[in-house]
Known about the structure:
By secondary structure, the protein is mainly α. It has 3 domains: 8-69; 86-151, Arc Repressor Mutant, subunit A (Orthogonal Bundle), CATH 1.10.10.60; 155-260, no CATH class. The chain is built from 12 helices and no strands. Helix 1 (8-19) crosses helix 4 (47-58), helix 6 crosses helix 7 and helix 9 runs parallel beside helix 11 (229-247). Keywords: DNA-binding. InterPro entries: Homeodomain-like_sf, HTH_CenpB_DNA-bd_dom. GO terms for molecular function: DNA binding. This is HTH CENPB-type domain-containing protein.
Amino acid sequence: MAPTTLTLKEKIVYLEKIESRGSRSLKDAASGLGLPFATVRRIWEDRVAIRKSWKSASRKPNSKKTRVSNTNIKLTSNRAPNIKRLKGNENNTDIEKGVLMWYKDMIHSEALVTEAIIRQKAMQIAENLGLNTFKASLNWLTQFRNKNQVVLNSDDLISQEITNKNLQKSKRYHSQQEIRKNSNSGGNRNSLPSNIDHSIKSDVKELPSLSDAYAALATLEQWYLGNESTCQLRVLPIIRQDLRYLRCKGEKRKIQGGNRIR
């Protein structure tokens, strides 16, 4: 009788029966199983490799052992996490919708919105929905902002505050530099200011004295620092103009001071 081709599962089944043959010989086991002796002998000789292959195949989710003997167990164990995951996503979606509606109302009313306020509101909505396990973590907040393109007006306020501080520092720095330059030049009253195209200003006969220019800038600085940011932005052209007067040392020298204050 020719050897029979068997699947891995069939080899395991026959191997277990061969091992339980007791004192019977392989020939008797082959007769009892209805298999060719050569097939039974090959199974017995390859028993270590067969068990190793079966053990390795059992670890794969699509193995025959999984499909045949543990179908119900595997399906049950796989479905539960998926259901929980889907429910979690649905719950988070409800929270995100609530937070997004609240955020739009706050922005429309020009109310202050910060990251801490958003997280606090998310926790409040989750509590109202009975989702006590929800956590408004930084990771959740980042995903929420990126997904819904949320821009906080608090970020704009911080950016504007930094810009205003930098403007003040820049203005003071350049004013001090110009004071040193003009002090070294001795306050030349013969140098006439020029336009950006290097043409001479027809309505200006001479530069003001250094004392007059410094006094005007000091008064302007006090007014500038005492007003709101919108007023500060409006007065920037005036400051630039006064600084141009101090920076002019020749008739056709290019004006650089206005470009440095930003």
